[in-house]
């Protein structure tokens, strides 16, 4: 369970986001403007801040700069309609840790929040092994086993599986895979993900009765034993 602050002046977006995160079991507080968000965030104790850039009275960039100037290092995810490269750069340079553009898929928001929380948690970040059903991933050894049988993966395939395993049971979007596996900020319009997923699926699923790698149409992919 995480403690999350949403600083968002659009009441519908704030309510939708807070409801979804609470249903995931997180504690959520909200603020409708910059000064209120700064005051609540200043009280500390939050694991992640979700901040809109265009806020009344005090914009999101200024809010985050004030927090950083005061020594607050709570991870910040900017959630905003401002999506140009320049806007993203400004957000990250102001002290933000991640940037998600509206409209957004809630599954991606959830995954990004959890990724930020893991960065802050040494224990989670240092996890070396994953088990999903009968699939074993040993990160330090760079080895993978399915039902006890070794699965030979190329470096890119291993990294792709690793990212999916980090979000096991949840949808990983194409954007997330491009950023975390290929270091692309935007979809280049190629079939690189589809081709790599197909090769990975052939190695970890084809010879087994229960598929683990699932396609969520229009969203992304999910690694799960169900």
In words, what does this structure look like?
The longest helix is centred in the middle third of the chain and has 15 residues, at 106-120. This protein has helices at residues 11-23, 34-42, 60-69, 85-93, 106-120, 122-125, 155-166, 174-182, 192-204, and strands at residues 3-7, 27-31, 48-51, 76-80, 98-101, 129-132, 135-138, 143-146, 149-151, 171-173, 213-216, 220-223. The chain has 226 residues and is α/β, with parallel strands linked by helices. The model is unreliable at 122-126 (pLDDT under 50). Helices cover 42% and strands 22% of the residues. It starts with a strand and ends with a strand. The chain has a 5-stranded parallel β-sheet, with helices on both faces. The chain has a 4-stranded antiparallel β-sheet with strand order 6-7-8-9, with helices on one face.
Task: Produce a short descriptive summary.
It contains nine helices and twelve strands. The chain has 226 residues and is an alpha/beta fold.
| CA radius of gyration | 19 Å
Strand content: 15-25%
Largest sheet entry:
5 strands, parallel
- Tell me the overall shape: elongated
**What percent of residues adopt helix (DSSP H or I)?**
40-55%
Determine the structural class based on helices, strands and strand pairing.
alpha/beta
Count of individual helical segments = 9
* Cα end-to-end separation: 23 Å
Strands of the widest sheet, in order across it, are 2-1-3-4-5
Q: Topology as H/E string?
A: EHEHEHEHEHHEEEEHEHHEE
Q: Please, what is the average pLDDT?
A: 88
User: Strand tally, please?
Assistant: 12
Low-pLDDT runs: 122-126
